[in-house]
Amino acid sequence: MKILIVLLFSLTFVPVFAQTTTYSEEEERMVQYVNNGLAYALKYDSLQNVKLIIDSCWKFLDKYPNSFAKPNVFSYLLEMTAVITNDLQKVNPLIDSVLYYDNLPITRQRIGAILIERNFDIKRGREFIIDALPNLTVPYHLYNSYMLLAKSDITLGKYASAISNFENAIKIDSTRAEAWYEYLGFLRIREMSREANVVLAKINKLEEQAKLRFTNQTSISPNINKNILEITVKDLDSNSVKLNSLEGEIVVINRFNFWCSPCIKEFAMFKKLIRVFPDVKFIFLNSGETSSELRERYFEKKEFNFLKTQPVYFVTDEYFNQIYGYGVPHTLVVDKNGNVRYDYLGYRKELETLLINNLKSLIGE
To answer: Using CB atoms within 10 A of its CB, is residue 114 exposed (0-12), middle (13-18) or buried (19+)?
Structure first.
């Protein structure tokens, strides 16, 4: 969720300084740098991990005071500063800078979210949300606004209002388990047993539907029976690698990104499967990060260092031209002829059992 909102920040600024705006490849790269840096900061929220990125932002602003990327950089600075400090004297000037360049409703909503979620100033955060709400048109933004109001209602002891805002959020999108679970927790705390049982029944139904959709992906995937052997990817040194070397191997391809929480969650499963199926080739495809980020920022962490001994490549346009689906995590199971036999987009706990059964079936052929 957070990352989606970050991208919206970067697309909606108002170029109030257009007549003197500068543009260069370095400035363009900065947008990608701070985007990835923020994703990293949100996962590893410590001064040690975030300060270097924040310092780079300030150096960039000094070097390019009229850059086209300036609104984006201020937005990311606000997000990252909010991660590592609760000092409003540092946060408020950044809020003012963001609003100077971008006063759109979605930006005001995001500022409200920061103030509420980080417990900076809940009442002011609500003001931002309430001000933005009438001008929001995207269902997700409306849903998120009502959820933020409900959470702040609980903190402020406005329980009747919390119920109303939870129900408004659910009316906009009743498929999001997050809203139902938070509503359930609230009802249980308030000892509203009858209402809680109704919500619990809805959660169980949604879970069964989600499990069925996930399990049945393979039966409707457009990737089934596509051949991967002619696809070329890039290794960590930017060399082209053709996947025809995998012919004769049973292969599991996992496309991931380190800012993706479900991607991180399923790594433990892959470490286990690598041990259980030593004759299966596991390929990890990254999209959105750089070789230096992988080597210097992630591979050295204990939970990720297993990737040092596994083939890790970067996705290419050629890959996307052949394999449908941009979301992550995305896992394909490929037979010895290079044909995709199973396809799973996203992560659920059932994936481990599904992959074990898939691999046993292919090994037995």
So the answer is: buried
User: What tokens appear for 129 in the block?
Assistant: 């949300």
Are the C-beta atoms of residues 84 and 46 closer than 8 Å to each other?
A: yes
User: Would you tell me how many other CB atoms lie within 10 Å of the CB of residue 234?
Assistant: 18
pTM of the predicted model as reported, rounded to 2 decimal places: 0.73
> Which residue is it, tokens 């309430």?
130
**What are the φ and ψ backbone dihedral angles of 341, each rounded to 5 degrees?**
-110, -30
| Residue among 44, 82, 42, 75 nearest 57 (CA) | 75
Which residues are registered as beta bridge partners of 345?
330
| Local structure of residue 22 (DSSP, 8 states) | B
What the block records as the tokens of 219 is: 């039966």
In angstroms, the CA 246 to CA 296 distance is 28
Quick: pLDDT tens for 121-173. 999 999 999 999 999 999 999 999 999 999 999 999 999 999 999 999 999 99
Pairing between β-strand 240-242 and β-strand 312-314 as defined by DSSP bridges: unpaired
As a whole number of angstroms, the distance between CA 184 and CA 151 comes to: 13
At 342, the amino acid letter reads Y
| CB distance 356 to 293 below 8 Å | no
Neighbours of 23 (CB within 10 A): 12
Instruction: Tell how far CA 106 is from the center of its chain.
Output: 18
**Residue 41 CB burial class (10 angstroms; 0-12, 13-18, ≥19):** buried
CB 256 within 8 A of CB 269: no
CA distance 294 to 307: 10
Instruction: Decide if 249 contacts 336 (C-beta within 8 A).
Output: yes
- Cα 139 from Cα 146, distance rounded (Å): 11
Bond into 15 cis (ω within 30) = no
Residue (of 102, 42, 40, 116) closest to 73 by Cα position? 102
Q: Which of 10-19, 232-241, 274-283 has the lowest mean pLDDT?
A: 10-19
Structure confidence at residue 47 as a pLDDT band (50, 70, 90): low
Q: How far apart are CA 145 and CA 141, in angstroms?
A: 6
The Cα-based distances of 363 to 137, 159, 183, 249, 358 in angstroms read 51, 56, 45, 10, 9
